Structures are given as structure tokens and as C-alpha cells.
Amino acid sequence: MARPDELTFAPLGGVGEIGMNLSIYGLGNRHQRAWLAVDLGVSFGDEEHLPGIDLIMPDIRFLEKERNNLMGLVLTHAHEDHFGAIIDLWPKLGCKIYATQFSAALFEAKCAAERNPPKIPVTVIPSGGRIDIGPFNVEFIPVAHSIPESHALAIKTDVGTVLHTGDWKIDPTPIIGRPTDERRLRELGDEGVLALVGDSTNAVRDGRSPSETEVAATIKKLVGAAKGRVAVTTFASNVARMKAVADAARAADREVVVVGRAMERAVQVARECGYLDGVQNFRSTDVYGHFPSDKVLALCTGSQGEPRAALARIANDDHPQVTLNKGDTVIFSSRTIPGNEKAVGGIINGLVEQGVEVITDRDHLVHVSGHPRRDELRDMISWVRPQLLIPVHGEALHLAEHAKLARAAGVPKVLTCRNGDLVKLGPGEPGIIDEVPAGRLYKDGTILEDSKSRAVVERRRMGFAGCAFVAIAMTEQGELADDPEVDLVGMPEKNAAGEMLDDIVFDVVVSTVEGLPRPRRRDPDALAESVRRAVRASLNEQWGKKPLCLVHVLTV
Question: Which residues are in the Metallo-beta-lactamase domain (predicted)?
């Protein structure tokens, strides 16, 4: 008798970390499976550990190998950590993409801003709609989040139904879009849910996330009380916050000036999709300086400290059109993403030094998370009543706390996994049955590199200890043809005794060459390695660090 098809799940990104989300679901047996991908996002580089790396993406070599069996890619919503890798990685997959209107429109605008984007067709599905994608029937269930048209996905198969929550929260009074569809989720629970694969971002926080309506009330009050110019910074994709700021400006008789390309793009898409109907027209930056200080509000990009974004340039006083002065106010209507604290702190300090009053979520309710706290997680479990729960979208602590909460809430089986684990969801006992290739790709300029990339590893070492460049010209007889050239980059000029380091290194190079037997001096590779070792050992002795050392041997 043939074994029934298995339904499997594997995270290739977004588990054990926040960002870089990519989940795949497989239906079939170990010899052949049909695959459905959910989201394809990025996380952001950390200059300290990954100098020069802007974006980190999931390694998709497994899906490349399976591209003939990949039925499609479904997007839960249009945040960068869920769709930011598509332009770079889709050409390796070539599959159909399915998304709702706002996500598709924002993606189209993102492509239009690229220099030479690939032509990537997106099939638009209505919010609440359903579609068959190979053997998977996918339903888009509206959920509240910090961007329009976020959806949980009910993925139905012959083996059972999986609820993939995406990013969500319970907000009974969202400013834009529909609240989380409790009725449909309860119906799904009545029909039977095999597994819930759920957002763990706020699993360590008790209670419930406040509503966007409460944030709007605070912003209205703060803008109304401000005396000089006001700037508000938030995520460009947070259209509800954009509307709240616009309403606060109108109540205070201020014009809204949009500052930053990403914000301009989001405003345009939101208007096209009808999410800013009834909201006044915004003004461009070239008229900012024409308004009295109490009649203008700048809506800016740069809430995460991005060095090229509008707010960073304003804080450095080098924005060509937008300035702030003593007595003006900046509202950070956002929470700092872990890893960005130093960059955001630098901008805040720059503004404070200019005499600007800075308001953050530490002072007032000017931001709420788009993710569920513990009581909301309990609600979801009680509505859906899954047989199995798998925490995703979180670091190790978030996943562990979500798992503990689910067990306490009576979920029969709870399973935690890591990126690359292949999990059998059903039929029968769930568990990790295999491992698939998973990892990270680094976007270095325009090139995608894997995590073992020489450039990334060496750049990190150079950032810590610099680099010594040595050039040696040798005769065919194995004698020095001229003085060696030494160039020390990123190192002190002198040692603790005040002696010049490049003089010391020069002497080490000469003595090392002259101390080698003649046959070894005639072998360029052997000579270079001997000099490299000697230079690094000498610098370690003089300085306490071992830099990279590049030795070039020329025979004349």
C-alpha cells in the first residue's frame, strides 16, 4: 500500500532571528514534493560585524534545486523583512508571485526605483480571497499590523490546514484597513487546524498591544502643543501612522511636507490604493521653507538611523531644503530595531545639540508594535485550537516563551525548530525529519556573496587590525633588486617607545629575506609566506594585534 503524502514545513530564514523571513511548505514524499514559498525578506547589515554589507538574505540554493517543483511564492505583506529579497533572488526561482493589491503596488514602485529591475509579474489576489496554487489552496485572512493588507494564510491540503499567521496583532480600532478577522479564524478553528505557525516577536511582553487610535490621539495632542516646526519620523510603510500625522497637522493648521524618497513612494501607493482618501494633499520639500514655523510639519524617513535618510541629513544640518532650529520638535513615531540603537542615538544627539526637542516612545505613546503580546497570542490559540504550534519570527528567547505559553494554553503539541529543519506536520506524529540547506547571503554592493565570502571575512579583520602591504623586487639569483616597499594601512604610526612602525617592518622584511637560504629566496610563494609570517609576528609584538598582511614578490 502506498504511503500517504506528507505535509512538511521548513523555515529558511526568520527563525532564531527577527527578519529575513522565508518559509516553505512541501506536499509529497521524500522522493518528490510540491513546494509553496511564503515571503522572501531581508535583514539589515551591522556595520560593526559586517562592514560594507547593506542587506542579508536567505540562502535559497535548496529552492533553486527544487525550482521545477516550486508552485509559487505568496506574500503575507509588504515589509522589507518579508519581501525585500525578491528583486535580487527571484531570477534564480522564476516562480509565480501572489499578493494583495497594496503589497503588489508597493513592490511595483520598489522595482520602478531600481536601475535595471528584472520584470517580475505579480498575481493580485483580493483581501479575503482564495486561490489554488498546485496542490495548496491558500486563503488570505485579514489581520491588523503596521502596514495595510497584512494577511494570515490558511494553507489547505489533503493532509490538513496550516495557519501561517505572518505578522499580526489584535487592534479593534485600526486607523486604516480591517481588524484581525476573528470570525473567520474561529470558523477555521471549527473546521480543524493541523498546525499554527506563528509570530513570536512580542511573546515576552505581557498584556495587549495598544491600538493605533491611541497613538493618533497622542500625536494630535503633541503636534497641537508644539510651538515651532514639527518633524515626525516613522516607517514609510506605516500608512495608518501617516494618516494620524496628517490628521494631527490639519487640526493644528499645519501643512504636511513629505521628506524622503521612500516616504514619497509609500504616499503615492497609499493614495492609488485608496488608503488616504479624504486626507489633504501633501506638499513637496521645495516649499518647506516658505511656510511660517508654526504652519509646517515634515513627515520624514530615517526613524532607524539610516545614514542617507532624510532625518540623518537634517540632524547633521546638511539637508538642502529642510532645517530645524532651537525650539522645534521631532517625534520618533517608531521603535528602534535591535542593532540600530547607536545610529538612532547619534541622530537624537545631533538634534538635541541643535536645541530641538526630541520625543520618543519612552516619553509618550507615539508608537505601538504591530505584533501580538501574550494575551493576544492566547486569543489566537483559543480561536484556532491547533493540534500543533510552531513558533517562528523571533530570536531564541521569543520562540521559547511562545512555546511555553502555547503549552500552558493547552496546545497538544508544540515544536521549536531552527532554520533548515524539515518538519513533518502530518499525517501522524509531527517532528523534525530532515535538514535542508539554509544560510545567509550578503549583498555587497551589487554582488551577492555567501557567508564564507573572502571579502566579508577579510574586511572584518581589516576593520579590527588594518593591513600591511609589502612589495619586494628580487633578482633571478635570489638577491634584493631594490629596497622593499612597505605600506601600513589602519595602524598607529609609532610603537609605545615612539619608534616608527613602518621602519621596524622595513627592517624585518630585509632581515627575513637575507636570512633565508638562496633556493627559498628564488621561490616567490615561499618567500612571500616567510615575509608575511615575520611581519605579522613583529607587528603583534610591537602593537598587540595581527593585521592582514599582503606580500607581492616581483622577479626582475
Answer: 21-219
In total, the chain counts a number of residues equal to 556
Alpha-carbon distance of 509 to 484, in angstroms, equals 7
Q: Which of the 8 DSSP states describes residue 505?
A: H
Identify each DSSP E strand in 276-333 by its residue range.
296-300, 329-332
Q: SS3 string of 397-466?
A: HHHHHHHHHHHHCCCCEECCCCCCEEEEEECCCCEEEEECCCCEEEEECCEEEECCCHHHHHHHHHHHHC
All three cell numbers of 473, joined, read: 623586487
- In angstroms, the CA 283 to CA 296 distance is 10
Tell me phi and psi for residue 308, to 5 degrees. Answer: -100, 0
What does CATH list as the number for 212-359? 3.40.50.10710
Contacts of 365 (CB under 8 A, 6+ apart): 210, 214, 215, 218
pTM of the model: 0.88
Q: Which fold has domain 454-555?
A: Ubiquitin-like (UB roll) (3.10.20)
| Helices 524-543 and 501-515: angle between axes, nearest 10 degrees | 140
Residues whose CB falls within 8 Å of the CB of residue 316, separated by 6 or more in sequence, listed in order: 350
* Distance separating alpha carbons of residues 165 and 198, to the nearest angstrom: 5
Task: Return the pLDDT at 1.
Answer: 32
Secondary structure (DSSP) of 337-380: PTT-HHHHHHHHHHHHHTT-EEE-TTTSS----SS--HHHHHHH
Q: Specify whether domain 6-207+369-445 bears CATH 3.60.15.10.
A: yes
Q: Give the closest residue to 69 by CA, choosing from 35, 46, 116.
A: 35
Amino acid 2: pLDDT: 41
Region of 192 (left: φ > 0; alpha: ψ -120 to 50; beta: rest) is: left
| CA 527/CA 521 separation, integer angstroms | 6
Dist CA 129 CA 123 (whole Å): 12
Q: What are the residue ranges spanned by the domains of the chain?
A: 6-207+369-445, 212-359, 454-555
Contacts of range 156-159, beta carbons closer than 8 Å, 24 or more positions apart: 157/5, 157/7, 157/27, 158/5, 158/27, 159/4, 159/5, 159/6, 159/7, 159/27, 159/194, 159/425, 159/426, 159/427
Q: Which amino acid is at 163?
A: L
Q: Which residues of the chain fall short of a pLDDT of 50?
A: 1-2
3-state secondary structure of 44: strand
Which pLDDT value is given to residue 430? 97
Residue 399 C-alpha from the chain's centroid: 18
In which element (H, E) is residue 392 found? strand 388-392
Q: Name the packing angle between helices 261-272 and 101-112 (round to 10°).
A: 140
C-alpha span between 521 and 471 (Å, rounded): 14
d(CA 30, CA 78): 33
Per-residue model confidence (pLDDT) at position 46: 65
Other beta carbons within 10 Å of 446: 7
Q: State how far the Cα of 200 lies from the Cα of 382, in Å rounded to an integer.
A: 16
